[in-house]
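Researcher: I'm preparing a figure for a lab meeting and need a structural model of a single chain. I don't have an experimental structure, so a prediction will have to do for now. The sequence is pasted below. Please return the structure as tokens so I can convert it later.
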Amino acid sequence: MLQIQSLNLSMRKDLRELLRDFTFSLNPGDKAAVIGEEGNGKSTLLKLIYDETMVEGYAEWSGTVRKNGLILGYLAQELPAEDKEKTAYEFCCEESAFLDSSPKELADAATELGFPQELFYSDRPMAALSGGEKVKLRMALLTLRRPDCYLLDEPSNDLDIETLEWLEAFIRDCPQPVLYISHDETLLENTANVIVHIEQLRRKTLPRWTVAKMGYRRYVEERLQSFSHQEQVARKEREEEKKQQERFRQIYQKVEHQQNAVSRQDPHSGRLLKKKMKSVKSMEHRFEREHQEMTELPDTEEAILVGFGENTGVPAGKTVLDFSLSRLTVDGGERLLSENLRLFVRGAEHVCIIGKNGAGKTTLLRRVAKELLPRKDLRAAYMPQDYEETVDQAKTPVEFLAKTAEKAELTRVKTYLGSMKYTPEECGHSIRELSGGQKAKLFFLKMILDGSNVLLLDEPTRNFSPLSGPVIRGILRDFEGCIISVSHDRKYIEEVCDTLYELEPGGLRRRDGLSGKTG
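Model: Understood. Here is the structure written out token by token.
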């Protein structure tokens, strides 16, 4: 099958190594998930495997990628800008497998992915389709190719829960091997049987990779156990070294004192003390060698995000939002999404709104943000799904976070960024150059620094790696203020949110968890 041997991969711009001597085989039956923080080269790896010309403009590589004549089905994370302007039908017509397929085959593909067959022939621009509609349509075209293996870059992005469950079944039951990138922990737990973990350690100067033939949950548990054991051994060795150093210091001082005190009239004692000092010096060199061989403290790249401050709570009886809307529309009011909406939020509720792709959840959250952001009695913050919606991408992270240009403020901001493992170079880059995960961390850090007590979050966890996800969820779960959010992340919904609504054409319907509705 697909084989990669001794692959070295680096970025042209800053010569940063992404992979060193990477070796991997994708075998029949493998459902291999590539995980790691944003910017570590996961997407670049998939592009290189599919078509090396896709990365030659910004990356350098050496090694061997053997495809052995395989037909690869590649799903890119984002549509190229030129494809976004095409209608759905024009986009489909560029896929030869679509043109060669019978109406029945097209109908079967549409049914399997859960969208109307008419979408193949729609004159709506690709840019106007919801995120889920884009992914479903592209996945359908991919299946029509009948590839030997699939390469999927973040296929779970922007999918509603129903389609996520379909995607899980597709990956799990697919007869072909699948190599895929995902941040969705539930999907990883339910599908992966091989984990490929790509990391950047020591301030992104040392690449590390791990291939583990096991499920995601077991990999995480064994990794944490390994790190815990390594940390215990390392700390024990350091404690023992400290005791040895103290004993050595006492011996050294004693011999040195004796040497200084010995009389010139006693050369025999002087020679003995000289030999003794030589032995002490030898002991010192042995300790130095042992120090070099000591177990290292475990090094991971998951950022530790500071929590919200103490003054971010909202009184239980305070009305945060009393929102009513007769019609929720888009396209200049021509397309009705929902009607008779009512959303009442009080105190420190953690609210999540779910719904099918294209239901209007993002549109609704924008309307709510317009009401809450100007309020003087609240400190509301809005994190959009598309970060360009509210952020000047030309700014640096420091410029985005700093309220003033004073030295103390700039130092404070840089300290926070450093604690989240931003390198000095990244602090000076424009936000446009940062990965999605790095941009998401900036939003969280700004909300923390501003002391926000009402958070309006559109898909807040979508760009965080699965290993960073638990940290983010923990911070939001413990947040004492109010959260109004839109999400398809099942772990986020279950662990963070205490109130759940589903947006339907007839309005918002209260749900008793993901399993049922209460009306």
